[in-house]
From TrEMBL:
Family statement drawn from the similarity comment of this UniProt entry: Belongs to the Nudix hydrolase family. NudC subfamily.
Enzyme Commission number(s) of this protein: 3.6.1.22
Protein name from the UniProt record: NAD(+) diphosphatase
Keyword vocabulary terms for this entry: Hydrolase, Magnesium, Metal-binding, NAD
Pfam families according to UniProt: NUDIX (PF00293), NUDIX-like (PF09296), Zn_ribbon_NUD (PF09297)
Keyword Magnesium on entry: yes
Primary enzyme class: hydrolase
Organism superkingdom: Eukaryota
Residue stretches making up the Nudix hydrolase domain: 206-336
Keyword Lipid metabolism in annotation: no
Length: 406
């Protein structure tokens, strides 16, 4: 079964940084001036009701959750706070923010609200007040698993939160100039930074780390190569992936990584699609997963045990069985219940709903990552590709895949 997505999770951000909406009178820079004035207590400045702020703590966005019916999982939402309300909360908590750490996220085409984010990890006094409002900081990965991938609004929220998290984490990692070592300062409403050293003034841009991710295919025997890593949950198999070396093309990176990790030689490399991935390692605020189909020229596997736990060829039939739709729905409802429990406040001695590792399921002897990951779509588009189509050099055609309209 293939799962219909409009775009990959974390792509398709509904906020745009350049608003064409004439009802929005604020450029990002003048908007930030207004926010700073309001935070200083200047109530004469322009109305701040059309400023909404998303708070983050330790990389986690503020979220809320509602239960709509007993038959369906709870639905999470981003915990946007109108600037005036945020100022009230800050006053109650005795917290002072000067606005320097606010980053502009953009605005929608159809409203006059400017959306912002800021990190309040250090403001412990704020936390109980947010909890009283049934708002809670939740790991973005948990929200990702908890999302109904058919819900476009929720998918948009994931993209917004992913972008905001990537920007804020990049701010944390770029506090000093790599050129002269002086402090950096945010400019352009937090979307860029500049060295504070007048004789340097180096401009620093948000960072994206590209990663190649590939499904290696044995065309003759109709099999795909899947690998296991020790950090994976048990019985999970996925695509190979790796970083690109300086001076290397994407195709070369696909061939080199496959060769290094499994000893398999790759010939033709075909691009599929790409996915922003703001939930990778902490030192990489936003990875860009660039997905390929890679056609094997040799078939003997020689696993580099330092990189992988195992790698095996899997038949199309066994891969289809591993793509068990019911298990992904189960993982989603479990994660959604966990978010609900966190937002509604779970006593310390009560346990949360089990983590999404339960997606390892009870039915399948193996499974592949859920629909939130590009690996899922590389694997499922191959697994559900028409056999006749494939034997007829189908690789050169667009796979009959849920993402073929990207
Ligand atoms: Zn500098």
């Amino acid at each position: 079964m293939s799962i219909n997505l409009q775009s990959h999770v974390f792509a398709g951000n509904p906020l745009t940084s350049k608003s064409s909406n004439p009802a929005n009178p604020f450029s990002p820079t003048t908007g930030l001036e207004t926010i700073k004035a309001r935070l200083l207590g200047n109530t004469q400045s322009a109305s701040s009701s059309n400023f909404k702020v998303l708070l983050f703590s330790r990389g986690r966005p503020l979220a809320s959750s509602v239960s709509v019916s007993v038959d369906s999982p709870p639905i999470w939402n981003l915990g946007w706070i109108i600037l005036d309300d945020l100022i009230g909360l800050l006053e109650s908590a005795g917290v002072h923010l000067n606005g320097d750490q606010f980053v502009y996220l953009g605005s929608r085409a159809d409203d006059d609200v400017a959306y912002w984010a800021t990190d309040v990890s250090a403001e412990r006094n704020l936390m109980p007040l947010l909890r009283n409002k049934q708002l809670c900081f939740v790991e973005l990965r948990t929200l990702m698993v908890a999302t109904d991938w058919a819900d476009l609004h929720a998918m948009g929220n994931l993209a917004i939160a992913g972008h905001a998290r990537a920007l804020l984490e990049w701010h944390n990692l770029s506090r000093f100039c790599g050129h002269c070592g002086e402090k950096t300062l945010p400019i352009d409403a937090g979307r860029r930074k500049r060295c504070s050293n007048e004789s340097c003034k180096k401009k620093i841009y948000p960072r994206v780390d590209p990663v190649v991710i590939m499904l290696v295919i044995d065309r003759e025997n109709d099999r795909a190569l899947l690998s296991k890593q020790s950090r994976f949950v048990p019985r999970m198999w996925s695509c190979l992936a790796g970083f690109i070396e300086p001076g290397e093309s994407l195709e070369e990176a696909v061939r080199r990584e496959t060769q290094e990790e499994t000893g398999i030689e790759v010939g033709e490399v075909v691009y599929s699609s790409s996915q922003p991935w703001p939930v990778g390692p902490n030192n990489m605020p936003c990875q860009l997963m660039i997905g390929f189909f890679a056609y094997a020229k040799s078939l003997e596997i020689n696993v580099d045990k330092k990189e992988l736990e195992d790698a095996e060829w899997h038949s199309r039939e066994s891969v289809r069985k591993a793509l068990t739709y019911a298990e992904y729905k189960k993982a989603q409802s479990t994660a959604a219940a966990k978010v609900e429990q966190m937002c509604k406040g779970v006593e310390k001695n009560q346990s949360l709903a089990a983590d999404f590792n339960v997606e390892s399921g009870e039915l399948a002897p193996m499974f592949v990552p859920g629909p939130f990951a590009i690996a899922h779509h590389l694997i499922s588009s191959w697994a559900f590709q028409d056999r006749v189509n494939n034997s007829d050099e189908g690789h050169s055609k667009q796979p009959r895949d849920s993402l073929s309209n990207l």
